[in-house]
Amino acid sequence: MSYVDEVLERVIAKNPSEKEFHQAVKEVLESLRVVIEKNEDKYRKDALLERICEPERVISFRVPWVDDNGQVQVNRGFRVQFNSAIGPYKGGLRLHPSVNQGIIKFLGFEQVFKNSLTGLPIGGGKGGSDFDPKGKSDREVMAFCQSFMTELHKYIGADTDVPAGDIGVGAREIGYLYGQYKRLTGLYEGVLTGKGLTYGGSLARTEATGYGLIYMVVEMLKAEGKTLEGQTVVISGSGNVAIYATEKAQQYGAKVVALSDSNGYIYDKDGIDLALVKEIKEGRRGRIKEYIEKKPSAVYTEGKGIWTIPCDIALPCATQNELDLEDAKALKANGCFLVAEGANMPSTQAATDFYLENGMIFMPGKAANAGGVATSALEMSQNSQRLSWTFEEVDAKLHDIMANIFKKVSEAAKKYDMEGNYVAGANIAGFEKVVEAMTAQGIV
Ligand code: NDP
After folding, report:
1. Residue 81, by phi and psi: left (phi above 0), alpha (psi -120 to 50) or beta?
2. Same structural domain for residues 18 and 129?
3. Rounded to two decimals, what is the model's pTM?
């Protein structure tokens, strides 16, 4: 049996209930087959893949807090410190009821390669909790965040592990978490990114993942001799990534016609009114269906189905496995030629295979959404230097980083005769750097 198949079997047997983790490992190892086969004996002897697939540390803890009725609630917190070969662990915290160890491990695993691709000195980690911030008062969210950090602070630090936001964790949550970290440790340091501008945050961090995604799409189109101007775009989600992807796409002259949340989606054939979306989502934490109250010409549909809307470009920016094979077929049938992932692993494996087998241009999340973590690393640099760069400086660096990632990904694919296969390219380019660093550091 090949080394890849052996390791895949072992990962599944050792982590039987972690299906998203299996999916992420399978996707990466399958696309690395050509590279691994070339070095099979050495990698096997060094148990390289076993080490890459085993987190350095998994921390799981109780998070008790008191709700507004005086009732004690208990959630489960996680931090997975996956790989520190190229820098301190770095990766977001997710607050969503679906969170479990398998989901955090899949995200942490992906993060290792994504962070490597940015070219910046950051290792991979991820964390979160099954706490649902939706419908909670500010006081309840603060009580949860303080309790969560009371345990987490033992394991993180500016040079150890630097968490950030993800689903359910935005500026409000980062603020509460930072306040509690400082109170417990007495340290005013860059231990979290995504901080507010008055206490060490970086300009352009809020926009970075969405903007970076569009910079990547522009590079992908450029390679085909095309531009974004006049393209019709469908974006799922209406959170941080979706909003700023919409903003940048509109600046490039694209027409974004749809957005969604976990209840349903809006279709506005005239193009999304982003100011209205921001007012609903960022202003009052409302639902996307409220959009049609002010824009009756738009249509709201409850449930799934956003991928049946005709478009040129699809940008899934909500959550994992939100786009399956049927959705991929519907996109293709309606003329979509390019998919780039703002979310982490939003396409199922079958959907990804379909894009690649049917000539669609596809960029996986670990490359396409790396602008968020890259800008987080820029926030870390500013914190270390006690400096603040301007919006334009950070945005220009973000732009260069995304263009560079595109170059690395396409060159890595070419090097192994898989031109245009950006899934393989991203995995290979991310993997090679981590392997080199791990090998140099001995058996650790
Ligand atoms: P937000 O919490 O700001 O927004 C998430 C959006 O996705 C919301 O519109 C939410 O709808 C929707 N959503 C969440 N879960 C589901 C679900 N199960 N089904 C359908 N819709 C869902 O998160 P972000 O925008 O920060 O993150 C979105 C994705 O991007 C995630 O995969 C995240 O890991 C990834 N990402 C984020 C980065 C960042 O910098 N923020 C960096 C790199 C990747 P609702 O409000 O109804 O829950």
Report:
1. beta
2. no
3. 0.96
